[in-house]
Each structure stands twice: as C-alpha cells, then as structure tokens.
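Why do we bother with a discrete structure alphabet at all? Because it lets us treat a fold like text: something you can write down, compare, and reason about line by line. To make this less abstract, here is a complete entry for Cytochrome P450. Read it the way you would read a sentence in a foreign language you are learning: slowly, and without expecting to understand everything at once.
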Amino acid sequence: MAQLQDLFTTTIHPLLSSFLSLAPSNKLLYGSTAFLTSYVVLYMPIRFIYRVYFDPLSGVPGPKSALVSENLNKLYWIVVPWRKGTEAFTLRELHDRYGPIVRTGPRHLSFNDIEVYNQIYKVNTKFPKSLDFYNHPSANESIVETVNIKDAHARRAALAPYFSKPAVRKLEDLIQSKVSLFLSRVQEIGTNVNITRGFRCLTVDIITSYSYEESFDSLSHPTFTPGWLLGFEQLIETTAVQNFLPNVFAVMEFVMEKFLPRSLVLTLSPIMGDVLNFKDVCSNAVLGQKVKYLAGERDMTTIFAQLFEDDEKRGRKALTDKQLIHDALSTVAAGMDTTGHALSYAIYYLIKYPDLQRRLLEELKGVMDSPTAEVKEEVLESLPLLQGCIKESLRFSHGVPGPLPRDAPADGATLLGHHLPAGTVILNSAYTYHTNPTVFPDPFKWDPTRWLVEDTREMERHFIPFSRGSRICIGMHLAEAELSVALGRFVRRFEIGFMDGFKDSDMEWRSVFVPKTTGMLMIWAKEREE
Ligand code: HEM
C-alpha cells in the first residue's frame, strides 16, 4: 500500500499535474497520443492474447493474424488494391489449409460443410442475416437486407405469389417478347456487341416491366449502355466501402442528393453522381407508379402495386417510400447482374468450345426448325444439354460468390462440435462449395456434360447459386425461365465469335457482392442460314 502511495506521489501525480497545466490544444494532442499509444501497446495485445487463448471460439483453427482486429480485416479487402474482391478465393484456400471450419476473424467463422449449410440456410431457420454485412445505406431497408426473420417473412409473403412457377409461366409472353427484341437488336448491331451489357439490358427490361408496367427500355439503347447502367456498375463497386463506413457513406449520399446540383456532384465525384442517377431512375419508377395507384388506377398487375397499401387481412403495413425505393433498387440489382452474368459465361464458353456449341445447336434444332422459330420455355426446360450449359454457367458465376453472413442465434449454436456464442458471424461461400473437387471433379473446367450423368444428386446437394431455405432467391423461377429462353433462342439464331482484342482475362472476376469481370464480353453475331 505504501509503495502504491509512493508511486502516486512520485510519478502519477506530477505527470497528471503537468498534463492539467498544459494549454487546451496541447492537452488534446498529448491526451489523444496517450490514448492511442495505450490502445495499440496495451489494449490490442491483451485483447489479441484473450482472443487466441481464452475466447469461446479459441479452439477453432485459423490464421492467428486474422484475430488482431475485425476492422483491419475489413479494411484489408478494401484498401489493398490487388486484394479487392478476392475474399471468396482466400476463404477457399483457408478451408484447404484448415478444414471445414475456419476462424477468419475474432467473431467470424467460415464453413465448408454442406450439412452445416443446410442447417443454417433452411426454411424456419434460427440464423438471421447478419447486420455485420446487410447494412448498406443504399439498400438497408430493402427486402434483401431485412435481417429480422419475422419482418422478412412478411415482406416475402407479399411478393411470393408473383414469383411462383405458375406466376412465371403466365409471364411467358413478356419474356419471349423481350428476348425477341433483344435478338433483333443483336442482329442489328452485329459486330462489337457488348453482350455483357446486352444481357443486363434484357434482364432489367423484363424485371422492370413486371415491376412497374413500363420497362426501363434499355434494349433500345444503340450500344446497350444506358446511363443508369453505368450508375449501377459504380454502385456495385461501392458495396465494400458502404459496409465498412455505412454512416459516412449515408451522410455523403444525403448531402450530395439533397443539397448539391447533380452536375456539381458529377464533377466532384463521378461515381456518386452515377449512383444517384441510378437511384433516381429506380425511385421515379416506383414512386411514379404509387402516385398513379393512389389516384385510382387500381387495375395494375405489377409486383409493386400491392405494396402501396396496408394489407389488413395479413396484418401487413404499406411499405414506406424509403422501403419502396430500396426494394426497387435491389430488385433491379438482384435480378439483373446475376442472370446476365450466367448468360455471359454460357456464351463465352460456347464460343471457346465449338464442339459443345455444335452439340447444343443440334439439340436446339430438334425443337426449333429455323433460327427464328418460336419455342416454349417448357420445351427448352426439357433439353438436357441446354440445361447442363445453364447449370454449369450458374456454377461458374455462383450467383453471389462470397459469403452471405448469418448470425448465431441468441442462445448460441453448436456446429461441427464447436459452441458458437450469440454474436458469432457465420460465413458460407458458394464459391467454396461450387469448386469442391470431390463433388465437381476438375472444378475449374466448364463442362456442361457433367450434368448429363444418371445420378446428379451429390452435385445438386452442393449446388447453391440461388441459396436455400427461407431466404432463397425469390426470383429463382423467373431467372430460370429467362436463362432457358434467352440462351436457347440466342444459340439457335446466331453464329458467334469473339471480337479482335477480346482476351480470356476479360472474363476473370472478383466479387463485389456479385462477380465483376475485369472486362466486357465483346462478340460478333450473324444470323444462321439454317
Ligand atoms: C441467375 C439469377 C439469379 C441468381 C443466381 C440469384 C441469386 C440469389 C441469391 C444467392 C440470393 C440470396 C441472397 C442473400 O442471402 O442475401 C438471392 C436473393 C434474392 N433475389 Fe435473386 N438471383 C437471381 C435472380 C433474381 C431475379 C430475376 C430476381 C427478381 C426479382 C431476384 C430477386 C431476389 C430477391 C428479392 C432476393 C432477396 C430475398 C430475401 O432476402 O429474402 N433474383 N438471389
């Protein structure tokens, strides 16, 4: 006790007194330096030791460097240029090194075990989407980012009837007519066709016609490059930053949207300008429709119309304007790039492997006697090689390749023999499952014939482009119909080839929520003679 008193009078007291006698600006400087130093030199090492040896997750294998700081881990994927968007690849490597469960951060566990996956992504799951990830200010009130299980269930229930298989069958005329328009536009352009963007325009015109009665009319753009698409491409680039600094992004967005003329925003930050333009297109579409609906135009058969009013029978409130805008934005995003990307991969590989293209053409000729013949989706769905090409392209594009994080429930969970306390964030990446060499031999080979064998059950069990369970992709049947009709009719109609200058490396991707290729798929297309 006497020693403590000595320490106080000889060291601490003089230090404190001289600190208190400093000028206020010096006080701030020395105070923050002392705080930062003790944070880095004392707090961080002690916290690190606790995480490595004493934390409830300390028994889970994984790189110890990942336990230093949650924020540094996130920052790593944002600021190191060559690591941007490569998290999915790293997670797969970590599973190769450490096994089916890896601790990838202080609170983060990644899994590579399909039974665990099925337990988490199931109907009536107790594992909600994690706010650690679903917090992007531009979409955090959308259905996709609704983390509360009950709220998400109510919002899905309102949309589900519009996306069931029978409902999508009723959309066949719309899908076929948009595909016809798309094919004639491709024929007209003929050379230097940016088919990556072409497929995006096709899928977005379908989903916007269904959502708002009027499509964005992207297919009529001379080069498939409408302004809003550039905005979308920029928005998707900002997802990691939005996730890391949601409040900063939200404030920036708010200030730029409400207080600055758009021309100035476009000069100061072209990315933000494009993002806001894209947001405007989506919000004008949905709010414009709401005005018409509330003015008495009630005979709309679109997805959004029923969300403008309370549904007393089901105890559901009308969506707020912010929810409507976020849904409009995320439905376009969810439905466009995923489908477009799978179609681009199919075309890329069919050009690369002409023998497979010839085989597919023969199959298609069996149901379409001329390059421009009509064919029902139902018929295309029954063609084994076409469906093999679609499955393989979905396996290669993954839907969302990186983790779709879920939280451990409030009372924790035990997975693969480890207890996960509440607050644990659980990661599962489609990329890891889709490239498992035991299930998909030679996994990086695009091989649609792997789906033509008698027993595909093991592959199907590991095939998760649309996710599973109560948060499975709501647009899955629509996407499947678009994929069959667009790919089948495209290959039957055109001879195709790469443009000079196109390189295989243009199709390499990194994950910005959805995959983003380094370049665009540039092709020529010429109508077949027979
Ligand atoms: C090949 C095409 C598609 C793929 C691979 C795909 C994939 C996915 C995946 C993996 C999820 C789960 C995301 C998560 O857990 O956070 C999802 C959710 C969703 N998808 Fe798709 N999607 C496709 C097409 C579509 C289409 C055409 C629509 C049309 C509207 C759509 C609308 C949605 C919506 C609204 C959700 C959120 C569901 C929820 O959170 O409960 N998707 N999709």
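What the structure line is telling us, in plain words: The chain has a mean pLDDT of 92. Residues 44 and 68 are 7 Å apart (CA to CA).
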